[in-house]
Design a protein that fits this description.
The structure holds three protein chains of three kinds. Chain B is mainly α. Chain B contains 16 helices and no strands. Chain B folds into three domains: 37 residues; 32 residues, no CATH class; 214 residues, MetI-like (MetI-like fold), CATH 1.10.3720.10. Chain C has two domains: 174 residues, Periplasmic binding protein-like II (D-Maltodextrin-Binding Protein, domain 2); 208 residues, Periplasmic binding protein-like II (D-Maltodextrin-Binding Protein, domain 2), CATH 3.40.190. Classes of the chains: A mainly alpha, B mainly alpha, C alpha/beta. The interface between A and B is large, with 96 and 95 residues.
Chain lengths: 325, 297, 408
């Protein structure tokens, strides 16, 4: 594990403070099926000499962290200086890719995580209260959104939510608005991605909570019933405290996964309306010219972002841990 | 008195039962509908199933009937399984899943148990480190692996992919089993140790019998991760070692060719079917496994 | 029964014998490339060679693995199939070798226009061409009394008439998906306006000018006549719209024409009236607002000369004129000797005849493409002005180019 994850993290850190050498450019004449043109190319011999001197590339410190594609320190300062009022500042901040993506990522993370926890718990309680023989089938069908999601998401669901697809048409009919399109407006795209996120993640919390419910001490519950606790009170004061370690665990994992939201953005072609740090990395690595240092920087920022998000939960775990010992 | 009280409660909860049924029913529809829609559509032509004119075409299938004279066709399955040899991908997926689940559960169970029973500070930091590892976006990891794997000639093999998937999955497995073990009262193994068992014997005789809900759930997630992974498998496997998900993605590609899209749809259905059969077949084991370990506190 | 089998068997031997007439190789061949049908045909042709191991990894992710796969020594891939945009990445990393010696030895059958020369050295062998051009529905245009447009201005006027007459709500189509596709449309339109992307001889971007603003305004004007989801429509989705009969005019890739004219995939009405046109001009310019593309293969630098020779021979066999048959000919506009243009190829030929410009083969063009794809989206949604969007593109490009060492 150290080898496979610690090493890449170190190499990503190193990569994020280095950039490739200055490319030595030369005038060339290029010929292709359509004729010859004057063009520019990299002088490989000259560039190779630079590379051999410093194999890691140029050391640039935190320059990439602060450039426009990431924290954009200079641009933020300019925006701040030019802004007329705080509202105007945030509107202009939205023009910088990092802050625009943060707006979506944080909205996504903080709506999907609580919603999926609540849904998962409700489904787990519901399934647990039902007949034993049905449970296998119920569990399977409840897991479906997790099993078939990534590809179905990009193919079938994408068609279903089209304005001519079955869900899109149903929504147009419900809201009586024939021009309604989930893919055309930023707000609706966000809602769609959040709904998809909950749909996709609810089975995860469901199955964890369901397994947790099986270890619920029956006599505690019974004594609560005898004391006249209502259903709601039983859930609130017996079941939830019992599941607390699992809830913490699911919340940790979900905060992390939702912060790195990526597949739905690509699957639903919603790059125009919503981006995330993971999508930046994908975009940097996927272009014709790959931006390795920029991708590395985005990765480090992701790790930092996740650490900040998880800090409260971790502090809690730390306290529990100390209480235990 | 207490038993009548409970009975009264049971009778009283009929309305609640309806509510539960309604909620679960609704959830099942939401969860399973896209899948059944896909299953239905896999017997149609692309022009019908993905109709941009009217979604009703997916139900009535006018193009399919016009071309083939019937509303249900098996072309997509024939194409995926016979022409494109999808079964190879199925075998590869089975291998990858089996080894990923076994390896991560072995490490996870032993590690999770040890961590949950240890009071040293470093165990906490170990868990935190595991978490930070997990925060790393998988695409970055894979992009970093590519070059060394090519250079050391490790690229393309199933074994490499298994190791990478285990590494990516291990922090999760460790945390999850750690949480489960924490809920197993320490008194259990302490009393075993009082009876003269070593720590390992305590694990073997006391913990193993009650750990199944956690292990089964964790195993399920490891399985799903290996089964569904795209980022790692699509980049690290050569054509002949491809698992199902990258294979399905290759049916789609950037330039979709007529028919190939339907291969992907039928392959998605085919990829889900074995899970369905597995769950139906083993549902009693899964459910009892989840229930069996119930700790009477 | 026995006789029938014998006949079949000998027929099979004859056929395979014809295909691998002289292809004997001595070395390892490993191909990486994109996965569309024309490339599959080439790889299958290469695989008919005997004497060495031949593997092919054709995947949509080819650009993510080809550099890494050609960097090791010996390289995993002995050849990469690329286009004029993606050869740049291989050139930048210096992982492909000049082919002059191999061409002199084994490549005499190649036509001069198949040889891609960079700085005087042959770096790739092209086998197919592609370009975006006009496609229109003759029936709808006739009903509306609109002539097939020669310019984008005429296209806009025609779209207005079609909409006003109630024939179609969204008469125009286009691959305007945010990202690569949208950037490609910008590139086309900007070239049509006579714009230059960079200050000559440098990597300094220069698109925030009148041509750039006109380009954006035109793209936005066109998008008003498109399906409101246009920012999510790639070529696949746009073709699907076309086949469903929802679109009357669009600018589309020549390689997509085969499926559009395939009677199995659409209604007879749509198939019969789908007509190919030449690329359009814009803003009174004479350069068509499109780019010419080629696909070709390269040979890896980090392999033994034996493997390089084997690779060259196998790939030559892959693009042998015997490759062309009823099934493969319509797959692409081939640059191979003996190719007879099909009706689906007229658009690409028209583009070449109109002296359309090839997609720029510059080391930093890809960075600009990525920046365009991400930053002009806000303008297309009406969230900011054209000059602000162009300034954003320049800023994003500059940050990326500085990181890559193209700018200081």
């Amino acid at each position: 594990m150290l080898l496979f994850i610690a090493l890449p993290i170190v190499s990503v850190l190193v990569q994020s403070v280095h950039t490739p050498h200055e490319a030595v450019l030369i005038e060339t004449e290029n010929c292709d099926p359509f004729g010859c043109t004057k063009s520019t190319a990299i002088d490989q011999d000259a560039t190779q000499a630079l590379r051999d001197e410093e194999p890691l590339g140029r050391f640039v410190g935190l320059e990439i962290y602060f450039d426009r594609g990431h924290l954009a320190v200079k641009e933020v300062a300019e925006t701040w200086a030019k802004a007329e009022g705080i509202g105007n500042f945030f509107v202009n901040l939205n023009n910088l890719p990092f802050y625009r993506s943060m707006a979506f990522t944080l909205t996504f993370t903080f709506s999907v995580t609580p919603l999926m926890l609540v849904f998962g718990l409700m489904i787990a309680l519901g399934v647990n209260a039902l007949h034993q023989r049905l449970k296998g089938v119920l569990i399977f069908f409840s897991l479906l959104p997790m099993i078939v999601s990534p590809l179905i998401g990009s193919l079938v669901l994408f068609w279903m939510i089209d304005s001519r697809g079955i869900i899109g048409s149903a929504l147009q009919w419900i809201f009586n608005d024939p021009a309604l399109s989930l893919k055309a407006s930023t707000g609706l795209t966000w809602v769609m991605l959040i709904v998809y996120g909950v749909w996709h993640a609810a089975p995860f919390s469901f199955i964890v909570f369901y397994a947790g419910l099986q270890t619920l001490p029956q006599d505690t519950l019974e004594s609560a019933q005898i004391d006249g606790a209502s259903r709601w009170q039983q859930v609130r004061y017996v079941i939830v405290p019992h599941l607390m370690p699992l809830i913490t665990f699911v919340a940790l994992m979900q905060l992390m996964d939702n912060f790195r939201v990526f597949e739905p953005i690509v699957g639903f072609n919603s790059e125009a309306h919503a981006t995330s740090l993971s999508w930046f990395i994908f975009n940097d690595l996927g272009g014709e010219t790959r931006l390795l240092s920029s991708a590395a920087t985005s990765s480090v920022l992701t790790i930092i972002g996740v650490s900040i998000l998880l800090a409260p939960v971790l502090v809690r775990t730390w306290r529990d841990f100390n209480a235990k010992s | 008195m207490s038993s009548t009280h409970v009975l009264a409660r049971k009778r009283q909860s009929l309305g609640l039962k309806m509510l539960i049924w309604g909620f679960i029913g609704l959830w099942l529809i939401v969860a399973a509908f896209p899948f059944f829609w896909t299953l239905w559509g896999s017997f149609k032509m692309e022009a019908d199933f993905f109709s941009k004119a009217d979604w009703m075409n997916a139900l009535t299938a006018p193009r399919t009937i016009a071309e083939h004279g019937r509303a249900f066709i098996g072309e997509a399955y024939n194409g995926a399984w016979v022409q494109e040899e999808f079964w190879r991908a199925v075998v590869n997926t089975a291998l990858v899943c089996f080894f990923v689940v076994c390896t991560s559960l072995t490490i996870g169970t032993l590690g999770g148990y040890a961590l949950s029973r240890s009071n040293y500070r470093y165990t906490f930091w170990l868990l935190i480190t595991a978490l930070i590892f997990r925060a790393m976006p998988p695409i970055t990891l894979v992009a970093g692996y590519l070059l060394p794997f090519f250079e050391w000639n490790l690229w393309g093999h199933l074994a490499t992919t298994v190791i990478v998937l285990v590494a990516i999955n291990q922090p999760f497995t460790l945390w999850m089993l750690h949480s489960f073990f924490q809920k197993i009262p320490k008194e259990l193994d302490e009393s075993a140790k009082v009876d003269g068992c070593t720590q390992f014997q305590a694990f073997r005789h006391v913990i193993i019998p009650v750990m199944w809900p956690g292990v089964i759930t964790t195993g399920l997630f490891s399985f799903l991760l290996a089964y569904n992974d795209f980022a790692v498998t699509s980049m690290l496997l050569s054509k002949e070692n491809q698992t199902m998900v990258p294979k399905i993605a290759s049916f789609l590609g950037t330039t979709q060719t007529e028919g190939n899209v339907m291969f992907a749809v039928s392959a998605v259905v085919s990829a889900t079917a074995p899970l369905f059969i597995l769950v139906l077949f083993f549902q009693r084991q899964i459910v009892s496994g989840l229930t069996q370990g119930a700790v009477k506190g | 029964m026995f006789m029938k089998k014998l006949v079949l068997a000998s027929a099979a031997i004859l056929m395979s014998g014809a295909a691998m007439a002289e292809c004997k190789i001595d070395g390892r061949v490993s191909i990486v490339g994109n996965e569309f049908p024309a490339i599959h045909a080439v790889a299958d042709g290469a695989k008919t060679c005997s004497g060495g191991e031949i593997k092919a990894n054709l995947t949509a992710d080819h650009q993510k693995i080809n550099v890494a796969g050609m960097t090791g020594n010996p390289a995993e891939y002995t050849t990469a199939i690329i286009a004029n945009s993606s050869i740049v990445a291989l050139m930048n990393e210096d992982v492909i070798r000049p082919l002059d010696d191999l061409v002199a030895q084994h490549g005499r059958a190649l036509k001069p226009n198949q040889l891609i020369k960079i700085n005087g050295e042959i770096m790739a062998v092209a086998f197919m061409a592609n370009a975006q051009h006009l496609v229109y529905r003759s029936d709808i245009l006739e009903k509306a009394g609109v002539k097939p447009p020669k310019t984008y201005e005429e296209m806009l006027a025609g779209a207005k008439i079609i909409r006003d007459k109630g024939l179609l709500q969204h008469p125009l189509g286009g691959a305007y998906k945010a990202g690569w596709n949208l950037a490609q449309e910008f590139t086309n339109m900007y070239i049509g306006h006579g714009g230059e992307f960079f200050k000559p001889g440098t990597a300094e971007v220069a698109i925030n000018n009148a041509a750039g603003v006109a380009t954006l305004e035109m793209l936005k004007a066109l998008s008003a006549y498109m399906n409101p989801d246009f920012l999510t429509h790639d070529s696949n989705a746009t073709s699907a719209e076309w086949k469903a009969g929802n679109v009357a005019m669009m600018n589309m890739w020549g390689s997509r024409m085969g499926p559009l004219k395939d009677p199995e995939q659409s209604t007879p009405q749509v198939v019969a009236t789908t007509t190919l046109g030449a690329p359009m001009t814009v803003g009174g310019g004479s350069t068509p607002a499109t780019t010419l593309w080629w696909d070709g293969w390269t040979v890896s630098k980090n392999i033994s000369s034996k493997d390089a020779e084997a690779t060259f021979l196998a790939m030559m066999n892959g693009i042998d004129p015997s490759l062309l048959n009823d099934e493969t000919t319509p797959l692409a506009v081939w640059l191979i000797d003996g190719y007879e243009p099909t009706p689906a190829a007229v658009g690409v030929f028209a583009a070449a005849n109109m002296n359309a410009r090839p997609y720029p083969m510059l080391p930093y063009q890809g960075l600009l493409h990525t920046a365009l794809g991400a930053e002009i989206v806000d303008f297309m949604q009406g969230k900011e002005s054209a000059s602000q969007a162009l300034a954003d593109v320049e800023a994003a490009y500059t940050a990326a180019a500085r990181e890559k060492g193209f700018l200081n």
